[in-house]
Amino acid sequence: MTNQVFKDEMTNPKPHAYGFSNGRDNPSRLPLDPIEVAISDEGIDWTSYFDVEDMFGVHCYDWDIAQTNPVENWQKINTRDGQHLTSSSFDSRDITSTWEVIGNSEAEFRMLYAALHDFFMDRKGFWIVFGNEPSFKYRVKTKVFAPTYVNEKQATIVITFNNYTGMRESVGTSLEIFDKEKNFFSYGMGIPNKDISYESKEEKFSIYNPSSIDIDPLGQNHYLKIHIKGSGSPTLTNKTTGESFTYNRVLGENDELILDGVDPYLNGQPDGINSNHGTISLVKGDNEFEISGLTNSDIAFEFYFIYF
């Protein structure tokens, strides 16, 4: 379950370019409104630099929109005009951000600079969310710090992050996106203005994928969990793609079958041997589904929306 990324400003006043926040005095009078930034190892629990005590003199003021980086391989066939496209993918890309570090002394500046390093430097990658695009997260690895020193206690620092997945994702899953308390939904996510649900108790139903691309657990290792409850031996078919998953054992009313990517689990235990080893993907847009062999069915699709 994904937790809220940024705290509510009504209860947690944040720094601004003016000297108050929601009617409260705010001593951090800044030249511009800073951009809040939060990070997370797994995309579940989030930490904003606003909430790190040792980063009181550190602020982000800008970041560049990540540019999609397509990579194609072509083959020339001598007897044919032009070339033949043999493969296409999207490579990693850089996100450049601009930060200001201001201390009251050289010693304080060095402490703030070290705190900024500690916040972003990690042997592993992490998720990052920018406050002016709060519904989307990027999987990144910090590449380099490039400081421009104003004096011994102030510097502008350009921090470059490598978005190594080449994509951005929704912060919340399809089962969380409409949770009003967490503010995961925003306009521009490709979700049409109509009744959309990612759970169904019907034999025939539709699942909408608002992503820029297909959700493909087999080919791209995308996150997709399909939760199946009911009584019987289920067959789930995506009529749009022609894919089908069948579980051969009989489910009881207290059982839960989860197709986690390409691996089925019965009540938390791996049980691929009792399936047809089928996989399910979601094309961009509407996907028409049918569930058979199951009474009192309850199906839920849990996945992140993926965007360029």
Automatic annotation (TrEMBL):
<feature type="domain" description="Siphovirus-type tail component RIFT-related">
    <location>
        <begin position="70"/>
        <end position="162"/>
    </location>
</feature>
<feature type="region of interest" description="Disordered">
    <location>
        <begin position="1"/>
        <end position="25"/>
    </location>
</feature>
<dbReference type="InterPro" id="IPR008841">
    <property type="entry name" value="Siphovirus-type_tail_N"/>
</dbReference>
<dbReference type="Pfam" id="PF05709">
    <property type="entry name" value="Sipho_tail"/>
</dbReference>
<feature type="compositionally biased region" description="Basic and acidic residues">
    <location>
        <begin position="1"/>
        <end position="11"/>
    </location>
</feature>
<protein>
    <submittedName>
        <fullName>Phage tail domain-containing protein</fullName>
    </submittedName>
</protein>
